[in-house]
Amino acid sequence: MEFIRLEGLSLKKQILNNIKKEVTENKYDIKLVTIQVGDNPASSIYIKNKISSCIYAGVKTLSLKFEEDTKESVIISKIQDLNNDKSVNGIMVQLPLPAHLNRNNIINAISESKDVDGITDTNLGKLVQGGNGFIPCTPKGIIRLLQHHNINFKPQSKVVIVGTSIIVGLPLSIMFKNMQLTVTTCNIFTTDIEKHIKTADLLVSAIGKRDVIKTEWLTKKQYVIDIGINRYNNKVVGDINFELAKKVVKGLTPTPGGAGPVTVACLVENTYLAFIRQNKLD
Hints:
The chain is of the alpha/beta class. It has helices at 9-26, 41-57, 72-83, 103-107, 121-129, 137-148, 169-178, 193-198, 242-245, 259-278, and strands at 4-5, 31-37, 60-66, 90-93, 158-162, 182-186, 202-205, 223-226, 230-232, 235-237, 251-252.
């Protein structure tokens, strides 16, 4: 079977073009507010990419940046103001936050109707129960990416997810379980991780450490989603050595250009959906 490069750029363009069409034809006035605390260079790049995608799709943006030492109460107060501002449809806090801030307190200050990242307790709870909340952008993007490349799994198929964050690993495991797949999640304490990886029909690596998944652990039956982001020799690379792994597995996401672009598109899509729901247009 020929190797499939699971690129996400064409899907990103498709999603954004669909939103752009709706926004233009209906003259929708949609706004996303992004919040950044500190000067993390990677966070600045991520926000820039999100803003450019919004602009392309016709979604307005406002980028708020706070100093590294800003008090938690100040940020929460601003979020509450945005919750009450009817011109704002989506609110996104760029992670990670500085160590002195409580991430849960800040994230959960966002109204569930404007939580376009889908990571408040309420929206994650709805995901568990199969409710109509906002789905976290990276997990949503991964599912969409697999569908885009016509990759389907049977109920007996096994998924192995390496990484258990509330942004990716945990919600993605719930989504796959809701699809009746068998899911194993691995973390830094998992013993014999190689053994688990070799059993996977679909492997998702969400660690952020270069070459942490060894090529010899992979098998010919696998599709692999690599969402790790690392900088090495002035290049962006994933958790897995793409050039080596593509000689083994059925399909693999490139880094950059794999799940990342679709994640950004899903954020814009969630903002569009927030506008639709808030205005009872669905």
